[in-house]
Amino acid sequence: MSTVTTIAGQLDAKGLKVAIVAARFNNFIVDHLISGAIDYLERHGLDATGITLVRVPGAFELPLVCHKLAASGQYNGILVLGAVIRGATPHFDYVCAEASKGIAQCMLQTGVSVGFGLLTCDTIEQAIERAGSKGGNKGIEAAAAMLETIRVLEQL
Ligand code: INI
Predict the structure, then answer these.
(1) What is the SS3 assignment for 72?
(2) pTM for the model
(3) Which atom of ligand 1 is nearest to the CA of 99?
C-alpha cells in the first residue's frame, strides 16, 4: 500500500464559495436539510459570507438553477436540496427522474462539484426520518460529499 498514490479530499471548507439551491416545495422537510447543511459547512470552516442560498419552487426547477450557478464560475461547489414525496399519481416519477438526471448533467457539463441532497421518498415519514431524525440528515451528507469532491477535484 505504501507505493499507492492516493488522492483524497480533506473536509476543510475554509475560504470556499458555496451555493445552496433549495426547493420550497415540502419546505417543512427541506428547511431541516438546509439548516443541517449550513451547520455542517460552518463547523468545517466555511464563513457564512461564503454561502449563498437560492430558493426555487420545486425539485423540477433545481437542475436549471444549479446549472446557471455552476456555469457562473463563482462557486466552488453547489449543494442541491429538496424533497419529493410520492403522491397518488405518477407525477413523483417524472419529477425525480428529471431532477436527478438534470443535476447529474450539470455536474458533468460544468465540472463543478454538486452535492445531491434530494430526498425521494414514498412517505412523509421516510422524509422526516432523513431530515434530522433517525435516518440522519441527508442535507449534511450531501454537504460533506460536495466538500470532499471539491477538494478531490483541486488535486486532479
Ligand atoms: N416538487 C417537489 O420538490 N417535491 C414534490 O414532492 C413535488 N410533488 O410531489 O409534486 C414537487 N412538485 C413540483 C415540481 O417540482 C415543480 O415545481 C412544478 O411541477 C412546477 O414546475
Answers:
(1) coil
(2) 0.97
(3) 15
Minimum CA distance residue for ligand 1 atom 12:
58
Ligand 1 cavity residues, CB under 6 Å: 23, 25-26, 57-61, 82-85, 87, 91-92, 95
Closest of 116, 117, 124, 122 to residue 28, by C-alpha? 124
End-to-end CA distance of the chain: 20
Q: Name the residue at shortest CA distance from atom 5 of ligand 1.
A: 84
- The DSSP code sequence of 30-49 is HHHHHHHHHHHHHHTT--GG
32 is catalytic: no
Residue nearest to atom 7 of ligand 1 (CA): 84
pLDDT digits (tens, 9 = 90+) for 95-145: 999 999 999 999 999 999 999 999 999 999 999 999 999 999 999 999 999
> What is the DSSP pairing of strand 131-133 with strand 136-137?
antiparallel
With a pLDDT cut of 90, the percent of the chain lying above it is 99
